Amino acid sequence: MAATATYEYAVRDRSGKVVTGKIEADSPAAVATKLKGMGYAPVKISEVKTSGMQMEIKLPKLGSKVKLKELAVFSRQFATMLNSGLSLLRALTILEEQTENKDFVKILTAVRQDVEVGNALSASMAKHPDYFPPLMINMIKAGEVGGFLDGVMIQVAENFEAEHKLRSRIKSAMTYPVVVFVLAILAVVGMLIFVVPTFADMFKNLGGELPAPTQVLVVMSNGLKTGGPIILVALIVLYVVWHRVKHKDWVRNKLDPLKLKLPVFGTLFQKIALSRFTRNLGTMISSGVPILQSLDIVADTAGNVVVRNAVRDVQESVRGGESLSEPLEKHPVFPPMVVQMLAVGEDTGALDTMLHKISDFYDQEVEATTEALASLIEPLMIAFLGGIIGSMIIALYMPIFKVFDLIK
């Protein structure tokens, strides 16, 4: 038996008068059906939230949000069905039935029920900001107003697919060095816990003084044995704290400028931020979203606070009547090529096209840079791993050269 809930409603009667009240039902769609059967025209339906002891306690789950790849697939399938002539509700029902992510299915069900009672798709999605980003919601809103929702969904799908491709390139370039680094840590910890104590006991029984490198290993081994649990707990706490504060402004204001100043990697981070900014801005402008609203939304999508602050300044300048390209010249994070191409796009009335061209250019630059970094990092990481393990082995075997002297 379906659980019922209490809903507040606002309806118009046959005389056009607005009537409000409360009713119990198992879904907003059921409420709308009951009200229509009573001869009313539903205006607004919202669930009454319970409080106190009746409140349901829900624990947060890790990874409950929809992934970017799932959102890209959803947008592409949604666009295809709308372009094929399926109704909005029918398309949402199909997507709800075939989506594998159970959390996302619940959200799609809530969105479909909101649309059934007369709410706009963008307004329904806006109730779930953890699943639908502002860029997607505002583009859909522009498509609803302009009557080209299917075309907007195609642009949303292409945008998410390009972003997913960009992230995949970065992950593939960083996978090898991260794996090698983890293996190096595990090898060092394993040798310090299991190998070094064995050699230390053997040399201790023979007598004599250990060489300085071997003594360092013994001290590290003893420290790891006694402080290992504390170090492990500290790392877990640090990981949790970092995930809670890494998106805070006071953290990003310190780290993001440093990212852009790093040798080699700083240029890569800048290209990634410019690619995201130009792609998202071009997609929103081509979808009919006003320029000031577009700038407000894309400021937070670049992934770097330096670019975000620059876009905020540009937004204020544009609000004051200036062009888009002029204020960009004041911010070094935007190369002269980007500024000049945007100026040409404004003069020719093809700003969205020019933004997409800039994004494609930086996507190719990111790909080339990540490939070059991967080819450079691989031998360096091998040398790093070999140097650490080799140094430890040499330090362990140095006392062996004195073994025969000690035996005599």
Give an overview in words:
- The protein has 408 residues and is mainly alpha-helical.
- It contains 16 helices and 3 strands.
- The protein has a 3-stranded antiparallel β-sheet with strand order 2-1-3, with helices on one face.
- β1 and β2 form a beta hairpin.
- α6 packs antiparallel against α7 (149-206) and α10 runs antiparallel to α15.
Bulk shape: extended
- The spatial strand order of the largest sheet comes to 2-1-3
Termini separation = 88 Å
Helix content: over 70%
The unreliable regions are 51-64
Order of helices and strands: EEHEHHHHHHHHHHHHHHH
The whole-angstrom Rg is 30 Å
Tell me the fraction of residues in β-strands, as a range: 5-15%
> Which structural class do the helices and strands define?
mainly alpha
- Average residue pLDDT: 81
Q: Please describe the biggest sheet, giving its number of strands, its sense, and whether it closes into a barrel.
A: 3 strands, antiparallel
Counting DSSP H or I runs of 4 or more residues, the number of helices is: 16
Number of strands: 3
Salient structural properties:
408 residues, mainly alpha, 3-stranded antiparallel β-sheet, 3 strands, 71% helix, 6% strand
In terms of topology, how is this protein built?
Blueprint: E1 5-12, E2 18-25, H1 28-37, E3 41-47, H2 68-83, H3 88-98, H4 102-116, H5 121-126, H6 134-146, H7 149-206, H8 212-245, H9 249-261, H10 265-286, H11 291-298, H12 305-319, H13 325-328, H14 336-348, H15 351-397, H16 403-407
Antiparallel strand pairs: 1-2, 1-3
